What does this fold into?
Amino acid sequence: MNNVLPRTSEIWNWLGMLLEAGLARLWWLGLAALVVVVVWGAVAVWWRRWAVRELDDRTCVELVPAATFDPELPEVGRVAGRLASVRAASGFLPRRASAVRVRVAAGDEGVLHYWWEGPQRGSGVLRLSGYRRVEVVAPRTRAERKRRVRFADAAPLKRGGSW
It folds into this structure.
């Protein structure tokens, strides 16, 4: 039995040798940690810029329902499943850039308007309405989405100014 287990003094001797070898190569560990931190930072910056670039290049589809629009529950479930598949259809994107935004507003004369906004890569799935009696309006161009309102003879308001 004594030949199987090492003596306590031998264990301490081995630990001392490991510690001495580790301290002799400590600069390698520091250099490896520095390389890991630099690579991680570069990847994080690249990932963020990629997400911002994809968020800037999104498509928006408008759906205008008819006056007789009344979807049934299975139809709503199919459309929800289709909207959930936009992320998969867009391919590999950062999570925040692959989200789908659904906006609902009442237009002129009480007509309900839906806007589905999502990644440009998934625009084909967004253009499929899935609802009966719903008109899909062509996606807006980027110039139309970024249009600013300008008044000809009005100076801009100052922040915190009064009316």
